Protein: ATP-dependent RNA helicase SrmB
Amino acid sequence: MLFDQLGLHPKILKSIQDQGFTEPSDIQQKAVPLILEGKDVMASAPTGTGKTAAFVLPALHILTQTEPVEGNGPRVLVLTPTRELAGQVSDNIYQFTKYLRMRSTTIVGGMPYPPQMRALRQSIDFLVATPGRFIDHMEAGRVDFSRVQMLILDEADRMLDMGFVDEVMRIAKEIPAARQTLLFSATLEGQIEKVARALLNEPERIQISGVKIKHDSITQHMLQADDFRHKRKLLDHVLADESLQQAIVFTSTKKGADSLAEKLKDDGHACAALHGDMRQSMRRRVIEQMQRQRIKVLVATDVAARGLDIRTLSHVVNFDLPMQAEDYVHRIGRTGRGGSTGFAYS
Structure:
């Protein structure tokens, strides 16, 4: 199946082609048609399978086909567990609205209130938010829910793990009952099942096998370093690999990402940093430069470990090892995507 067989708006298809995609992934093939039919969907899929696009693409299409209700506030509300993930969803929306006139904004903690308050007084097509900060605005009476036609819960299991179940239920209660609701999660069992029963209306259930992804297309290497200088030499050796097209180098801190990116630039690499303290516009610029292959080496924190899909990314380097095994899986899953092979070094 090709993307142009999914029935998406021509301008959305043009932006998909610009990203270099021709065939939808399994989760996209199954979820997009159901969402376009207006059905509620609860879905589980492995990392690296294009899950974010599976809800962004049909939501955008639906917005192009429906007349917006007059007033302020969002038409589509996406709730995510962390501001980093919210940023990644926003980046995805930005990439696929290249030829559409859509207004999107992000409401997350750790950012100033006034710009968010101004945004909420406007008509918004896509609003991506973390539950905690969104509840703050909601309790202050700043959120108009009258235009909301779709609610999307992304990585719902993580939201519940972080204790946001009450916030999610409170937010959903304020949204018109006639909405369409989508839930994406690593698992569809336990408490997620209860939340789905409460919020979704006769949902279609999608479960893509292989949630514990094996990364068979990625050759994984472990390198032992004696000290920091030795670690840098090993990194230089990996980056000198002639087969390297583009690489992500992961660090554990934002300061470490900035520092290492500057050193690699001094060594002559086309390099940039990417982390959660950067403005959304700057992060988008870096990702665009990466997609256009103007940047060869991206030094990043875990903000780049989820949602980033660059087909020419051949190498992933864990300069600093992650604290959680799941984060390792997400990091190295940035390479070896869409049937290609990749290399991971730790």
